């Protein structure tokens, strides 16, 4: 592989490895190795000082054989077309592994949203919709939030789309604010989904959750609810989280022994997942280097920040005590690190299974939008739990019967479903 840290090269290699095991014919492999469509465009935005600034935007539609493309919008300064391609491809597998009738897509803008005012952000996301409106829609492609985007931005985008097409269309985008077409439970969905997966893994490995400890990388949407759920749903103890400090341009690990309180930390964290270091220290938290999270003597580690975070350079720092790695983030483990983790015999819950709670509840959001009838939070979370349990069960069964790691098993389940739909629709 030319570049072992390029997420798209990783996503393609993971697919090829499993395609070989499944003996998939080369034409079908070629079909699935690349997105069906890609949109690259430039968005002019009037900044608060009156000047026009150009931003580079993308939307990648990997595969829609099982239903409309689905996937988040990532606003990040180091976004690339290849990271978006990888994320779009993983969305195809994610929707298939949880068996929801959606395909894979992803989009983004190269921008540091923390440097924009709320008005500039609104103009940027409305501009994104003006470039893409013909190619998105409830039956075409349904974006959602991801790193650097939030429910308010989704609300503005839904409004812009509805104005352009002249019809209130809440189902064009998910992750909208509750009260503005959003679903209860969406903000907790991905982090809690990680926890439901860990619970199932612990049942399988016969581990008592109340006796376990976890270390988490990240403290954004996914990590916050994974940390809260680890204590409140599983009764375990979180020993630390880490985060990226934009002011200092470096990552830190934040811990407080038994007194670690994720809900308190959430109250001193901004919308970009950056913890107020001063307030954390004043409240008895210890601040260490950003790499400290991975070396903790814990039972579970949860990478829930960005891709490529467990790699050849740090995989050997993982404690021998670790029994489960739950990939909250998309693509957090490089191929070399993956091989080392298999050698260490750690049970890894792969990203597109582990963090699939988000897209599952996004799907529920569009179902509720279509019905114009909304469920309670408990109903949403119970339905999510049922879907994730069943997905975990299918993957575990595949892993056991085929004697392959969970990642390969998740690919096998997903790829078989996608290829079956391609056959049924007469595409191949
Ligand atoms: P977010 O922007 O809310 O949070 C990201 C967090 O990662 C922040 O706390 C940030 O400080 C931290 N971070 C960034 N770089 C870091 C580093 N080098 N070291 C330590 N911390 C670092 O994003 P999110 O929505 O929580 O998404 C996190 C991951 O989960 C991404 O890979 C995303 O694609 C994936 N994901 C998110 C959802 C969702 O519903 N939000 C669903 C599925 C997958």
Please provide a written account of the structure.
This protein is an alpha/beta fold. Helix content is 44%, strand content 18%. The chain has 14 helices and 12 strands. It has a 7-stranded mixed beta sheet. Helix 10 links the parallel strand 11 (324-326) and strand 12. Helix 6 runs parallel beside helix 13. The longest helix is centred in the last third of the chain and has 26 residues, at 377-402. It starts with 6 loop residues before the first helix and ends with a helix. The relative contact order is 0.13. The mean pLDDT is 97. The structure holds nicotinamide-adenine-dinucleotide. Nicotinamide-adenine-dinucleotide binds at residues 146-148, 190, 217-223, 242-244, 251, 272-274, 290, 304-306, 328-330, 355, 358. Nicotinamide-adenine-dinucleotide is lined by residues 146-148, 190, 217-223, 242-244, 251, 272-274, 290, 304-306, 328-330, 355, 358.
Average pLDDT over all residues = 97
Report the principal-axis shape.
globular
Q: Main beta sheet: strand number and arrangement?
A: 7 strands, mixed
Oligomer: single chain
Order of helices and strands: HHEEEHEHEHHEHEEHHEEEHEHHHH
Strand content: 15-25%
Strand and helix layout:
Elements: H1 7-22, H2 26-33, E1 37-46, E2 52-63, E3 69-76, H3 81-97, E4 103-110, H4 118-132, E5 141-145, H5 151-165, H6 186-205, E6 213-217, H7 221-232, E7 237-245, E8 250-255, H8 262-267, H9 277-282, E9 286-289, E10 300-303, E11 324-326, H10 335-343, E12 347-349, H11 351-354, H12 357-371, H13 377-402, H14 406-424
Parallel strand pairs: 3-4, 3-5, 6-7, 6-10, 10-11, 11-12
Antiparallel strand pairs: 1-2, 2-4, 7-8, 8-9
Helix pairs in contact: 1-3, 1-14, 3-14, 4-5, 6-7, 6-12, 6-13, 12-13, 13-14
The chain binds nicotinamide-adenine-dinucleotide.
Nicotinamide-adenine-dinucleotide is lined by residues 146-148, 190, 217-223, 242-244, 251, 272-274, 290, 304-306, 328-330, 355, 358.
């Amino acid at each position: 592989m030319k570049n072992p840290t390029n997420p798209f090269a990783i996503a393609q290699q993971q697919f090829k490895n499993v395609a070989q095991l499944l003996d998939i014919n080369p034409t079908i492999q070629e079909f699935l190795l690349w997105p069906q469509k890609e949109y690259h465009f430039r968005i002019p935005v009037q900044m608060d000082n009156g000047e026009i600034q150009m931003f580079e935007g993308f939307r990648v539609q990997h595969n829609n054989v099982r239903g409309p493309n689905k996937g988040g919008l990532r606003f990040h300064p180091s976004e690339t077309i290849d990271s978006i391609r990888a994320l779009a491809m993983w969305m195809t597998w994610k929707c298939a592994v949880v068996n929801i009738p959606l395909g894979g897509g992803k989009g983004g803008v190269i921008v540091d949203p923390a440097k924009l005012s709320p008005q500039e952000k609104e103009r940027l996301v409305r501009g994104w919709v003006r470039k893409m409106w013909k190619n998105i829609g409830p039956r075409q492609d349904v974006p959602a939030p991801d790193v650097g985007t939030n429910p308010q931005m989704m609300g503005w985008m839904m409004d812009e789309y509805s104005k352009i097409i002249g019809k209130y269309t809440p189902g064009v985008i998910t992750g909208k604010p509750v009260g503005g077409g959003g679903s209860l439970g969406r903000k907790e969905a991905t982090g809690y989904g990680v926890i439901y997966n860990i619970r199932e893994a612990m049942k399988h490995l016969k581990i008592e959750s109340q006796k376990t400890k976890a270390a988490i990388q990240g403290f954004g949407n996914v990590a916050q609810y994974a940390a809260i759920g680890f204590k409140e749903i599983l009764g375990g103890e979180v020993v630390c989280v880490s985060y990226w400090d934009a002011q200092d341009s470096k990552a830190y690990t934040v811990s407080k022994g038994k007194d670690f309180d994720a809900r308190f930390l959430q109250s001193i964290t901004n919308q970009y997942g950056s913890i107020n270091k001063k307030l954390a220290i004043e409240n008895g938290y210890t601040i260490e280097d950003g790499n400290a999270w991975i070396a903790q003597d814990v039972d579970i580690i949860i990478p829930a920040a960005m891709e490529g975070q467990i790699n050849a350079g740090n995989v050997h720092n993982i404690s021998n005590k670790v029994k489960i790695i739950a990939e909250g983030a998309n693509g957090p483990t490089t191929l070399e690190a993956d091989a080392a983790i298999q050698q260490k015999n750690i049970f890894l819950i792969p990203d597109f299974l582990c963090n699939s709670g988000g897209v599952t509840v996004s799907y529920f959001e569009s179902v509720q939008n279509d019905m114009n009838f909304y469920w309670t939070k408990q109903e949403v979370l119970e339905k999510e739990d049922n879907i994730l349990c069943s997905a975990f069960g299918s993957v575990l069964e595949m892993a056991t019967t085929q004697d392959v790691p969970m990642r390969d098993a998740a690919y096998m389940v997903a790829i078989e479903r996608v290829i079956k739909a391609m056959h049924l629709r007469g595409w191949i």
